[in-house]
Every structure is written in structure tokens, then in C-alpha cells.
Design goal:
With about 550 residues, the protein is mainly α. It folds into two domains: about 200 residues; about 290 residues, Helix Hairpins. Helices cover about 90% and strands about 0% of the residues. It starts with 5 loop residues before the first helix and ends with a helix. It holds the Pfam family HAMP. This is Methyl-accepting chemotaxis protein. InterPro entries: HAMP_dom, MCPsignal_dom.
């Protein structure tokens, strides 16, 4: 029954009620049919009793017709014989009808009745035949036979007894039919009363057990499902009828509601997480903007100092170059004067004075060049230190870029966990990662440029050191020239040798000045290269600052 539907159960219930009603109706019909059969049997017995009475009356009438007075005329006797013949035919028909309609039990109870009636009929036929063929008188004699009268009396007695028996049986059958009909009526009334009552009680039980109570349980389950955010247990889910379907639907509703509540909770958590992430991104953006602004400001200031220092170094190198050229010209002039002094001994004092003055001037210029070289070397050293500081700042930028890349990777992972709620955050994380990569590449390019500038500064430092050494040699040479001029002022006798040595020394100084000029030209080129690198570094820093500002704007907009 649990696998049947509610409609099927109701149909089965009404089918059972119909079957019970049909059985009751069939029983009533059988009872009425039995009563009808009993009534039919009683009617048949009454009809047989009537047939027996009719046969008895016809036999009596035939017997009376055969009793004619002897004083009757022949015509009366012939008329009587005609009537007797007709009465005998009626008796024979009544006999045949009665004997054929009698039950076997009555025929067995009266085995001689048919034979006696046939004997009576044959006797009466004999009277008619005698009267018609022989004489009426002989017929009268035959009709007055005592045996014939005794036979008639027995037939009448037998038919009367048979009639009484049939009447008794008909009465008993009528009584049985009435009793049976009364029993059938009582049973019909009882079924008519009990069947609706039993059907109502059974319907009430079925409605209570199969519909009302399960519906109350399902209503309670529905209230629990509406009020609870968890999956509840719903009864009657194993039933195959509509109640089971409704229970399964309530269970599905509870599961769907629990899923929706869970998803709403997850959505709230995702929104809170997104708010926290947005706040964290805003903090990261502010911190990144502050740190990158500070770092870019420091890099810009260091780049500006480097550019100005390189420009100052270029100016100083140009000044050194001009001083060196002037010193070279002076040395050449000193050599020419020395050669002239060898030709004009008379003008030796004046020439020696000029040589001494020129040598002092060259010495002073060499001293000034030495100071300029020392200053340039210190400036190059300071530029190298600034480049090292810039490399440190770029290293910090690379660390920030790596940290930003890690944050972008974590943000991408969290966005993937958040699903559809983290798509915008995933886009922002991709932008953060792209900007971090761009910042890292820009920092790499800055490091490369700083390395080139550092290399140029190293070459400049070496060149300045070489210039300082050359200038020191020139200064020493000038000192030696001055010493030699002072020591040989009074040695006029050895003027030629002194002038020759002065010429050699001035030639050597001229060569040194040429080398110093070449070194100055190389230093000027390297200083210009360093200045160009510094300008390009400024441009890279400005581009990086613009990208950082754009990234911060996108990060805040997200």
C-alpha cells in the first residue's frame, strides 16, 4: 500500500466500498431470488393443488354423469354418454397435466394414482363404448358396478389427500418465502446501515492515517523549513503517493533554502572580504604612492645632483683643458725663448727673467690645474657615491615591485577563490602585476643606465687622476726649471748647456701638456656622456612616476 499513490488508494477504497455494496446487493438479490423460488414453488404447489382439485372434481363429475337412473329415456342416456365422453377427455387432460407437473417425490409417494385414474378413464370409456355399440342398458349396468365406484372413491380420496399435501406444502413454502424475504430485508437494511457507517469509519481512518496526519506533519516540516537555514528531515519521503512527492518537494525546498542561505552567507562574506580587500588595496595604494613618491623624489634629487655635478665636471674639465692648452703654449713659448737665449747671450738676463716668470706662471697654472683635478676627482667620487645611493634606491624599488608582484599573485589566488565576486579584483590584481613588472623593468633600465654612468665616472676619475699626475709632473718640471734658472743665473759660462736642458725639459713638458690635453678631451667626452645618461635617467624617472600615478589611480578606481 505504501507504494500506491493517494489517488490509487482512494480509488481502491471506493472500489472496496463498491465491491462490498455489490456483494451486499448480490446477497440481497440471492435472498430475493431464493424467496422468489420459494414463492414459485408455493405457487406451483398451489397450482398443483388446484390441478388435483380440478382432477378430483372432474372425476366426480364424470362419476356423477355415469350414474343415470334406469327410468331415463334412451335419448337422455345417449346425451349422458356424450357428456361422459367429453368429461372423460377433460379428466384425461387434467390427469396428464397433474401427473406431468407433480414432483418426483409426490409421484413416488402416490405410485398408484396414475394407474387408478387411467383405470377410471378406461372404465368410463368402456361405459361409453358399451352404450354406443351394444345398448344403453348394458352401459347402465356397467356404470353401476361396485368396483368402479370404489375406484372413484379411492381416486377422489387420493387426489384430495394430494391436494391437501400440496396446499400444506404451499403454505409452508409461503411461510419460508416470507421468512426469507424478511431475512433478506433485514440483511439489506443492515447492509444499508452498516456499509455507509463502516465505509465512513474506514474513510475516516484512511483520511486520518493516509492524508490528514501526513499533511499535518508536512505542514510542520514546511514551517520548520521556512524558519530554519539548515536541511531538515521530512517524514513520509519514502511513500510513492502524492504525499511522498510533496514530502520530497518539501525536502528539496529545504535543501534549496539551505543552499540559498549558505550562498547568501558566502556572498556576504565575499562582500566583506571584497571590502577588506578594497580597503587593503587602498592602503597599499596609499603606501605605494607615498613610498614610490618618496623614492622617486629621492631618485630625482639624486639624478639632479648627478646631472649638475656632471655639468660642473664638464665645465671644470673644459677649464682644465683650456688651462692645459695655455700651459702648453707657455711651455712652447718657454722653449722658443730658451732657444732664442742660446743665440742671444747678451739678452740672457732679460730672457732668464722672462723664463723664470713664465715658469712660475706655468707652475701656478699647474698648481691650479692640480687643484681643479683634485676637485674634479672629489666631484667624480661624490657622483659615484650618489650613483651607489641611486642603486640602493632602485634596489628598494625592485623590492617594492617584487612585493607588489607577490601581492598581485595573492590577490589573483583570492580572486580565483571568490569566483564571480572576485572578477574585478582579479582585473585589478592583473593591473598590479603588470605595473609591478613595468616598475621592475624600469628599475632594471635605471640600474643599467647607472652602471653606464658609473663606468663613465670611473673612466673620468682615472682620467682626472692621470691629469693630476701629469699636472704634478708639469709642476715639478716647472719647479726644476725655476731652480735650474735660479742656479744658473750666474753661470753664464754654461748657458748653452743650461738652455739645451731647458729646451729638453720644455719639450718634455710640452709632450706632457699634449697628453694632458688628450686626456682632457676624453674626460670631456665621458662627462658629456654622463650628463646625457643623467638626462635620460631623469626622463626614465619621470616616466616611472607617471606610470606609478596611473597605477595608483586605477587601483583606487577598482
Amino acid at each position: 500500500m505504501r507504494r500506491l499513490g493517494l489517488t490509487a488508494k482512494i480509488m481502491i477504497f471506493f472500489a472496496l466500498l463498491g465491491l462490498a455494496g455489490a456483494l451486499g446487493l448480490a446477497s440481497a438479490l440471492r435472498g430475493f431470488d431464493e424467496a422468489r423460488r420459494i414463492d414459485a414453488a408455493a405457487f406451483s404447489d398451489i397450482r398443483l393443488a388446484g390441478s388435483a382439485s380440478l382432477l378430483s372434481s372432474r372425476i366426480a363429475a364424470a362419476a356423477l354423469l355415469s350414474r343415470v337412473d334406469t327410468d331415463s329415456s334412451p335419448q337422455e342416456i345417449e346425451a349422458m354418454l356424450g357428456k361422459l365422453d367429453a368429461a372423460i377427455e377433460l379428466v384425461d387432460a387434467a390427469r396428464a397435466h397433474l401427473i406431468s407437473a407433480l414432483p418426483a417425490s409426490l409421484r413416488e409417494a402416490n405410485p398408484t394414482l396414475d394407474a387408478r385414474i387411467k383405470t377410471f378413464i378406461a372404465f368410463q370409456h368402456g361405459i361409453v363404448d358399451i352404450g354406443q355399440r351394444i345398448s344403453t342398458k348394458a352401459a347402465l349396468l356397467e356404470a353401476g358396478a361396485a368396483d368402479a365406484r370404489a375406484n372413484v372413491d379411492q381416486i377422489v380420496a387420493t387426489t384430495a389427500a394430494l391436494r391437501d399435501e400440496l396446499a400444506r406444502r404451499a403454505g409452508e413454502a409461503s411461510i419460508r418465502a416470507g421468512a426469507r424475504a424478511e431475512a433478506v430485508r433485514f440483511r439489506t437494511i443492515l447492509l444499508t446501515m452498516l456499509l455507509p457507517l463502516g465505509g465512513g469509519l474506514l474513510a475516516l481512518f484512511m483520511l486520518r492515517s493516509q492524508l490528514t496526519r501526513p499533511l499535518r506533519n508536512l505542514m510542520e516540516a514546511i514551517r520548520q523549513a521556512v524558519a530554519s537555514d539548515r536541511v531538515i528531515e521530512v517524514p513520509h519521503r519514502d511513500r510513492a503517493d502524492e504525499i511522498g512527492q510533496l514530502a520530497r518537494v518539501v525536502r528539496q525546498f529545504s535543501e534549496v533554502r539551505a543552499t540559498l542561505v549558505t550562498r547568501e552567507s558566502e556572498a556576504d562574506d565575499a562582500r566583506r572580504l571584497e571590502q577588506l580587500r578594497n580597503a587593503e588595496l587602498a592602503g597599499i595604494a596609499d603606501e605605494f604612492e607615498a613610498r614610490i613618491g618618496l623614492l622617486l623624489g629621492e631618485i630625482g634629487r639624486a639624478s639632479e645632483v648627478l646631472r649638475m655635478a656632471l655639468q660642473d665636471a664638464a665645465v671644470r674639465v673644459h677649464q682644465i683643458s683650456r688651462s692645459t692648452e695655455t700651459a702648453a703654449a707657455s711651455v712652447d713659448g718657454a722653449g722658443i725663448d730658451a732657444r732664442r737665449s742660446s743665440e742671444a747671450a747678451l739678452r740672457l738676463d732679460f730672457v732668464l727673467g722672462q723664463i723664470n716668470a713664465e715658469v712660475r706662471r706655468v707652475s701656478e697654472m699647474a698648481t691650479e690645474a692640480t687643484r681643479e683635478a683634485v676637485g674634479t676627482h672629489a666631484l667624480v667620487t661624490r657622483l659615484t657615491e650618489n650613483a651607489a645611493q641611486i642603486r640602493d634606491v632602485v634596489g628598494i624599488i625592485e623590492a617594492v615591485a617584487r612585493q607588489t608582484n607577490l601581492l598581485a599573485l595573492n590577490a589573483t589566488i583570492e580572486a580565483a577563490r571568490a569566483g564571480s565576486h572576485g572578477r574585478g579584483f582579479a582585473v585589478v590584481a592583473a593591473e598590479v602585476k603588470t605595473l609591478a613588472n613595468q616598475a621592475s623593468e624600469a628599475a632594471g633600465r635605471i640600474v643599467s643606465r647607472i652602471a653606464q654612468a658609473d663606468e663613465a665616472l670611473s673612466h673620468a676619475a682615472e682620467a682626472v687622476s692621470a691629469i693630476g699626475a701629469s699636472v704634478a709632473a708639469v709642476e715639478q718640471t716647472g719647479t726644476e726649471i725655476a731652480t735650474m734658472v735660479g742656479s744658473h743665473v750666474e753661470l753664464l759660462g754654461s748657458l748653452g748647456e743650461t738652455v739645451a736642458r731647458i729646451s729638453d725639459v720644455t719639450g718634455t713638458a710640452a709632450l706632457a701638456m699634449g697628453e694632458i690635453a688628450a686626456a682632457n678631451l676624453q674626460t670631456v667626452g665621458q662627462a658629456d656622456t654622463g650628463a646625457a645618461s643623467a638626462r635620460e635617467l631623469d626622463q626614465r624617472i619621470n616616466a616611472l612616476q607617471a606610470e606609478a600615478e596611473a597605477f595608483v589611480r586605477r587601483l583606487r578606481a577598482a
